[in-house]
Amino acid sequence: MARGTSRKAGSGSGAPDPFDHPSTRALVARGLEEDVGRGDVTTAATIDPGLSGRTALVAREDCVVAGLPLVSIVLEAVAGRRARVPSVSVEVGEGEAARKGRRLAVVAGPLAVTLTGERLLLNLVQHLCGVATETRRYVEAVRGTRAAIVDTRKTLPGMRLLQKYAVRCGGGRNHRFGLDDGVLVKDNHVAACGSVAAAVRAARASVPHSLRVEVECDRIAQVEEALRAGADAILLDNMTPEQVRAAVRRIDGRAIVEVSGGVNLDTVRAYAESGADLVSIGRLTHSVRAVDVGLDFLSRRASRAGARRA
Fold it and tell me: What is the pLDDT of residue 34?
């Protein structure tokens, strides 16, 4: 792990460490295969292998930081067994707010390794900072209410652990990590079973008692049916804040209330104030805008061998 890196966003969450997981190593390997291919011809032609230097990751806009441990992971993969791995000194903790112009981390070591890994490490850090920053906006928008902001399974393939980690950095909470992580009876399950009650009963009869049974409802009649069937949680899908408020009154604490569908920054406060326990938002991960983070050159230093060759 990079010196000075904080991973506090993942502590106590019960989630796997995304920076020590095979999916992240595989993602980095695929990213380098795609970007580097047979070799970085530009760096090979212009940068002496003995040339070392210092560069800095800098925020080009205000953001919430997430994903800086990936810088070391990418550089280790680039260096492989043939080159020295640049050191990474992190200057802003994960989940902390950084103002425009703030230096996030300093990379020191072989410039050829840094420049070859630059695009991939920036792509990953920019995206995760984007997720954390957008999540923080929603968290701030509902501050003072009982509602928590949660993510969904609408994540980019191969990036689920990283994106859900970034949501935690932004102050949000994680919903299911996968289909094996909990029961969520959705509209197509209901249609195939014939009714909400039938779907909930089937789930209750099949899954361990330790798994919560949640059911998606898009009208009040379904809410009543779900309650009678013993659902632990009810997802109110594509309802207005007024409809959510009416449903919350009917539920009256007998089940956890989640709201989803069409929620944005302009409406999230109204949904939170309607009495929902959770507000799940797919746009935190599936279509978030990346934050602008750049890699700035600071200084260079040639090795003795490199200086003799020069």
Answer: 97
